[in-house]
Design goal:
Strand content: 5-15%
Number of helices: 7
Distance between the termini: 31 Å
Number of strands: 4
Structural class: mainly alpha
Radius of gyration: 17 Å
Largest sheet: 2 strands, parallel
Order of helices and strands: HHHHEHEEEHH
Number of domains: 1
Shape: globular
Length: 177
């Protein structure tokens, strides 16, 4: 979903007469923290799909580390309101994940709406929403079936909006001066 947000941000930036070259002058502190954080998530998903890990104490520890890196990046860049918006989205996801033992709750009906299997335990740190799920409304409950098929959360949408706004305003920086 975030790849689509980047693409949409760049397209909107161009439509609004922004320049891609302006992204080179983005003033971000600790950008490597985001890279490390998402690399950890990638490794967790890879290990789960290869049946090396299952959701448990190891994945919970790695999830905590990932979110610490992401929130450190957000804190370092808190003066940028669009980074803060992304941080709010990440916080909503973290609330859903950590209130459910380190797994993101996923709606069965949303999965079925886009034709995905409900066997989510083998795909990553997911669990199906049931009567015992905490904060299920913050889970992956929104089916998206255009330009790809996803099930996303409110947090994902807020983070994507923040990312799009950040890219657009960064691309337009010289236009706005």
């Amino acid at each position: 979903m975030f790849v689509l947000a980047i693409i949409f941000g760049v397209i909107i930036g161009y439509i609004l007469k922004g320049r891609l070259s302006n992204l080179e002058s983005m003033e971000l502190k600790g950008i490597y923290l985001i890279g490390f954080g998402f690399a950890i998530e990638f490794v967790i998903i890879l290990l789960i799909r290869k049946n090396i890990f299952t959701a448990g104490i190891n994945t919970l520890f790695l999830d905590i580390l990932m979110y610490l890196l992401i929130f450190t990046f957000i804190f370092l860049n808190r003066k940028n309101r669009y980074i803060v918006i992304m941080g709010i989205g990440f916080m909503l996801n973290a609330l859903a994940i950590f209130s459910n033992g380190g797994t993101m709750p996923v709606s069965t009906s949303a999965l079925k709406a886009i034709g995905f299997s409900t066997n989510v335990h083998t795909e990553g740190l997911y669990t199906l929403i049931n009567a015992n799920t905490n904060l299920s409304f913050l889970g992956d409950t929104i089916p998206i079936d255009f330009i790809g098929r996803f099930v996303v959360s409110l947090g994902d949408i807020i983070s994507a909006i923040g990312l799009i706004l950040f890219i657009v305003t960064s691309m337009r920086k010289s236009v706005l001066k």
